[in-house]
């Protein structure tokens, strides 16, 4: 990465408000006007809009995470790869937005995975285009840290459901039951650890 890449992300990426508009537009469509995967994704976007709004109302960072984020003392861009249909994004991104908003040195920009495969392919997980992905970038393009695509606890629940041979709806039900019970604590702990490692290792 370089400074030109970061400048492009800051200019062409979606601000939180602009991404919210994209989510609301997708959620406002009627799944019956579409077929197959597209209809399914519109249905997911509707659910995700409700999840996002609920989490924004109820989640706040722990004192440890808030204090750690306050230690960030240089400008950085948080590039977040996502899609409106992604349930993990709906459960995690509102928390990341709230956290970023607590420090004016952090600029958040969303990039849609399916519209920008050339960017997504820089941030693969095990060779897959898993989302959400957060990559924090310094102005010169240096990657400061990365997080995603879901908390380890959520991944363990999903992997266990897959090992049981459950079909997609049942796997997603278990995954979102985890998120509902966890209330953002796993993400909070992981972001505290990620930020602490970055800050304590920064020159």
Summarize the structure.
The chain has 203 residues and is an alpha+beta fold. The chain contains 9 helices and 4 strands. Helix 3 packs parallel to helix 5 (87-101) and helix 4 (63-70) runs parallel beside helix 9 (185-201).
Give a written overview of the molecule.
This protein is of the alpha+beta class and 203 residues long. Helix content is 57%, strand content 12%. It has 9 helices and 4 strands, in the order H-H-H-H-E-H-E-H-E-E-H-H-H. The chain has helices at residues 3-12, 16-27, 36-58, 63-70, 87-101, 117-120, 152-163, 168-182, 185-201; strands at residues 76-82, 106-112, 133-138, 143-147. Strands 2-1-3-4 form a 4-stranded mixed sheet, sandwiched between helices. Helix 5 links the parallel strand 1 and strand 2 (106-112). Helix 2 (16-27) crosses helix 3 and helix 3 runs parallel beside helix 5. The radius of gyration is 17 Å and the shape is globular. The protein starts with a helix and ends with a helix. The mean pLDDT is 96.
- Whole-number mean pLDDT: 96
Residue windows where pLDDT falls under 50 for at least 5 positions: none
Rounded to the nearest angstrom, the distance between the terminal CA atoms is 19 Å
Count helical runs. Answer: 9
Structural class label: alpha+beta
Number of E-type strands: 4
Fraction of residues in helices? 55-70%
Proportion of residues in extended strands: 5-15%
| Cα gyration radius (Å) | 17 Å
Strand and helix order: HHHHEHEHEEHHH
Indicate the overall shape. Answer: globular
Sheet with the most strands: spatial strand order? 2-1-3-4
Question: Main beta sheet: strand number and arrangement?
Answer: 4 strands, mixed
């Amino acid at each position: 990465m370089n400074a030109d890449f970061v400048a492009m992300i800051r200019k062409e990426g979606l601000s939180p408000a602009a991404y919210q508009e994209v989510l609301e537009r997708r959620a406002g469509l009627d799944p019956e006007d579409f077929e197959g995967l597209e209809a399914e994704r519109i249905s997911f976007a509707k659910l995700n809009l409700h999840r996002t709004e609920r989490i924004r109302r109820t989640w706040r960072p722990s004192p440890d995470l808030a204090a750690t984020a306050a230690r960030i003392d240089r400008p950085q861009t948080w590039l977040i790869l996502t899609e409106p249909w992604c349930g993990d994004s709906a459960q995690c991104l509102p928390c990341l937005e709230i956290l970023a908003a607590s420090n004016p040195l952090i600029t958040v920009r969303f990039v849609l995975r399916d519209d920008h495969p050339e960017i997504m392919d820089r941030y693969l997980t095990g060779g897959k285009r898993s989302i959400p992905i957060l990559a924090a970038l310094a102005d010169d393009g240096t990657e400061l840290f990365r997080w995603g695509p879901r908390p380890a606890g959520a991944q363990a629940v999903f992997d266990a459901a897959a090992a049981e041979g459950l079909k997609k709806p049942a796997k997603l039900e278990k995954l979102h039951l985890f998120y509902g019970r966890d209330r953002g604590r796993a993400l909070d702990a992981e972001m505290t650890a990620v930020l602490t490692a970055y800050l304590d290792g920064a020159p």
